[in-house]
Structures are given as C-alpha cells and as structure tokens.
Amino acid sequence: MTWMKQELAAAIAPLLRVAPLVDVAMCDYTTWRIGGPADILVQPSDEEELSALLTLLAERDVPWLVIGNGSNLLVADSGIRGVVIRMAEHFSSAVWRGDEVEASAGMLLAALALEAAERGLAGLEFARGIPGSVGGGIRMNAGAYDGRLGDFVTFVAAVGFDGQPIRLEREQIHFAYRDSSLFALKAVITRVGMRLQPGERETILAKMKEYSQRRSLAQPLEFPSCGSVFRNPDGDHAGHLIEMAGLRGTRVGGAEVSQKHGNFIINRGNATAAEVRELIELVQERVYAYAGIRLVPEVKFVGDFD
Ligand SMILES: Cc1cc2nc3c(=O)[nH]c(=O)nc-3n(C[C@H](O)[C@H](O)[C@H](O)COP(=O)(O)OP(=O)(O)OC[C@H]3O[C@@H](n4cnc5c(N)ncnc54)[C@H](O)[C@@H]3O)c2cc1C
Fold first, then answer.
1. Cα–Cα distances in Å, from 213 out to 72, 128, 204, 271?
2. Are strands 165-169 and 153-160 parallel, antiparallel or unpaired?
C-alpha cells in the first residue's frame, strides 16, 4: 500500500467542503446496519470536487468505491480498504424544466418521486418506497410494481476514474432487470436526466399511497434490511421459492429470513456480514435442493469476505 490513511485524508481535505472521515463504521451508512470500517469516507458536494478527488486517487493508485444510500449493499465485517465516495445529501438537488428533470445522484428516489407528484408529473410512483439514491437506483435500474427507473432516463452524467466528465445519452445505455451497462463504467454517476408524463397530482399521490400500503403489508419494514436479497428467477419469485422451501424464520446468528417476506433477510439487532452471507448461502443450497434453481443475489457484496 503506497498510501497511509491520515496522510491521504490530509491531502484530500483541501479538495472538499465536507471534511473526509477516517475509520468510518459502514454500519452507519447501510440500511442493513451492517459493515466494518472504511479507511476513509468522503462526501463530495459538486462535480469539480469529485473530479479533483478522482484525479488525486488515480495519481496515487488508491482504490475507491462509490455508494449512494447503502440500501443494496452487504459490507464485509472487515470493512473497506481505500476511499468510499458517498453520494448523498451533499450532492442532492433537482432542476425541473417542464416534464423533464435533471436530478443529482445523491438525491433520494423517494424525494424525487414526491417532487414529481407535486408538479403533476407521473411515472415515478413506484419509486416512492425505494430507499435508494438516484445514482444507485439508475445503476441498479431499480424498479417495483409496473415501473423501472431506466424507462425514464434521457441521459446520465458522470465523472470518470481519471477525473474527466462523461455524458451518455439514453441510446448509449442498456437497462435490464435490476442491471444496467452503467456497471461497466468506472465512474461516479453525478446527474441523471429523466422525462416524465403529465398527470393529475391527486391521482399520482393516491397511487403512491396504495403502493406504500402494499409494501407495509408485505415487507418487514420495521427491521433493517436491504430489501430483496435475491433476483427473481425467470417466471418465478425468489420469495415464493424460499417460503416453499420452508425457510421462513431460519436464522444464522442475528440474521433471519423474514417471516413476513421470504426474500428479505432482516437484521435482528446484531447481525454480522459473515452471518448474513452464511444465511444467503444456506438459502441458495436449500432452494436448489427444493426446486433445482440457483438463486442469484441482487445485493452487492463489498469489501473482503475471505
Ligand atoms: C426496505 C427496502 C426496500 C427496497 N425495495 C426495492 C424495490 O422495490 N425495488 C428495487 O429495485 N430495489 C429495492 N431496494 C433495494 C435498493 O433500495 C435499490 O437497489 C437502490 O436502487 C439502491 O440505491 P442506493 O443509493 O442505496 O445504492 P447503494 O446500495 O449505495 O449502491 C448500490 C450499487 O450502486 C452503485 N452506486 C451507488 N451510487 C452510485 C453513483 N452515484 N455512481 C455510480 N454507482 C453508484 C454502488 O457502487 C453499488 O454497486 C429496497 C431496499 C430496502 C432496504
């Protein structure tokens, strides 16, 4: 390792308005409330800061990882070496022009969906209950019920690993089920352009309320989780297969397959990443034995698990 934490944090500090944090417990930055320490966590405020930061990290050959709201991450108990770039409240705004919006990557999807509703713009009703950021959501092509984020995108702006700006038009991006070609981009997404459809404010808000009620009935929202752990296999639902395999309530330490929704693993209070991973593997084995289907995790594993 050609860099030291304190010395690197001191070199980064003048580049950013928000001071870098050293030895940061990642459990405070994930919805699962799990994860060991990151060496350094930074929260850039604009693209200029991000560009200067990435240029410095490239020059010094420092590994980095970008996160949004940490709602689809399992961070290893040993944490993350290098720099975590958190795109959240410091990088959060929306500029509206008619039925189009340019949303900053750190904005929460729920807030963006609500702003759209207030303006009488339809399409993002499904996103009101997804606890991710615009950047994480677009990369994951987050979706629920009848909607997927990728369907509304007009462009994506990012800063590349070399500090250079990148702009991709809609036709240059491929979106698939909980996946996109943006994963191949070694860059931090900074802004996303979207076009919505004119609608009735009251109708939009009513649809959001209905979705939210359906979520509270079906999902264990009172416990920390990452939402659905596994992708749905073709023609079936992971949750259904897990429940049919008799896995509801199965526990490894503080990690438990939710009684309410088979595809949720909840943190009963003190679960470790190792326990969650063990439970994920157990579920995969049992579902395979029951149905011959190998479930693929939707959640992203970050840090060193071996
Ligand atoms: C209770 C609950 C319910 C959920 N329901 C849904 C649902 O209905 N539908 C659904 O699709 N998901 C759902 N999720 C999962 C999660 O909210 C989504 O996957 C969301 O899009 C992740 O966004 P994030 O900002 O939290 O990303 P993170 O978890 O922080 O990161 C996810 C991935 O995106 C990358 N990333 C994040 N920000 C950027 C950026 N600015 N530039 C480049 N890459 C970036 C990260 O490196 C990582 O690979 C749910 C989660 C929870 C906890």
1. 22, 12, 14, 28
2. antiparallel
Q: Which residues line the pocket of ligand 1, CB cutoff 6 A?
A: 31, 65-73, 87, 105, 130-133, 135-137, 139-140, 142-144, 178, 188-189, 221, 225-227, 300
CA of 190 to the centre of ligand 1 (A): 15
Alpha-carbon dihedral sign for residues 219, 107, 160, 173: positive
* Residue 146 pLDDT level (bands cut at 50, 70, 90): confident
Angstrom distance (rounded) from CA 109 to CA 123: 12
How confident is the model over 56-100, as pLDDT tens digits?
999 999 999 999 999 999 999 999 999 999 999 999 999 999 999
Could you say which of 51, 180, 228, 258 is catalytic? Answer: 228
Domains along the chain?
A: 5-89 (3.30.43.10), 92-216 (3.30.465.10), 220-302 (3.90.78.10)
The tokens of 123 are what? Answer: 């399409």
